[in-house]
Amino acid sequence: MSIYAINTDYIGEQLSPEEYRGIKNQSWLKVILKGLSKLFNINFLGYKTGDSASNYNSGTTYTFQQRVKHTDKGIYELIVTSSLNNPPTDTSKWLKLNEFFIGTDERIKYNSQIVLFEYSLNNYFSTSGIYITNNFVESDNNFVMDTTSDGSSYFSYSNDTQIDYMDYTATYNTNTNDFTINVPTAFYNSLGTYKEQLIRSFADKYNLIGMKYNVTNY
Q1: Which domains does the chain have, with CATH numbers?
Q2: Most Cβ neighbours (<10 Å): which of 85, 91, 96, 97?
Q3: Is pLDDT at 162 greater than 70 in this prediction?
């Protein structure tokens, strides 16, 4: 573990005078330092290494200090004796421990390489079957306007003589995507009204600047 790791049992023993290192005194110190140990485990270990808590289920009765993962991908802990049909958004019963269930140790390794990109998407959405396909982008379809005719694309008065005809209602193609994120239909529909926005909210964090993509289901 790193230099930031805290073992409160060890610290309590090492900072105690030798005559107070007996079983009773050390047990008392463990009780006093338990709160510090819990805060370390939650705020540091949970943030750094992640949390494997299960998804919140409205039909489940949860008990004191049980942790769950909510739809916002955050980790919550129950702070009352028990709870049924009280979602983590109920702050009188739940305490938000971490904003994200995936630890920073893993997240800092995410990037736009296709295998890792696919893994991160499936892991974030707790599903499988999301994959990426690269698309061929034909540069000849781009329209170039230069200061001279030699450096510009051919321009005509009719769309019969060129692929991208430009007039008052331009038909120039601006929807070419470098890659496609393919999502299983059943899971895609389960995301609700803003399903594409949810996919993009995560994918945009790791997509390279200038790369365009579309989201489709299969």
Answers
A1: 1-49 (no CATH), 51-101 (2.10.10), 107-217 (no CATH)
A2: 97
A3: no
